[in-house]
Amino acid sequence: MKSSNKDYNLERFKIAQDKCYHKVKAELSTERKLTHWMWYIFPQVYGLGQSATAQFYSIKSLPEANAYWRDPLLAGRLKECCQLLIDARETNITKIMGSPDDLKLCSSMTLFDHVIDNNSVFKLVLEKYYNASADPLTLEKIASWNAASE
C-alpha cells in the first residue's frame, strides 16, 4: 500500500517554513544564517539531533524522505535553498551557517543525495563545502533503514 504525505505529517514542515521562508532566503542570499530554522528547512535523519525540535522535524524513514521530495512545495524550497548555497561566493560553510548547523547541513545533503537519484543539487553542495564527503552518521542510519526493510 502506498503511503500518503498525510502519513508523514509533512504539514509540520510547511507550517514552520511558511513563517520564515522569506527570511531564510534573505539569510542564505547574504551568506549569513542569523536565525533558527535549520530543522525544517534542511531536515536530517531521526536520532542525530537530541532536542525536541530536532526530533519533531527529523526524517524517520526512507519513504518519508521520498514523500518530502515528492511534495512540490517542500522539494522546490529545498532545491532553491541549495542553489543559494551553490551560488554563494563564500566557500567555508561554517562562516555561512555557523556551528553545528554546518554539520546538520551535511547530514541533510547526505540524506537527500542518497534518496534522490540523478539530482545533482545535493551532490553539488557536498562537493563545494564538504569535499564531496557524505555524513557518516547519516549513512549509518540509512543503512540501518535499508537493513530493516529487507
From TrEMBL:
InterPro entries linked: DUF1810 (IPR014937), Rv1873-like_sf (IPR036287)
SUPFAM superfamilies: Rv1873-like (SSF140736)
Domain of life: Bacteria
Protein name per its UniProtKB record: DUF1810 domain-containing protein
Native source organism of the sequence: Aliikangiella marina
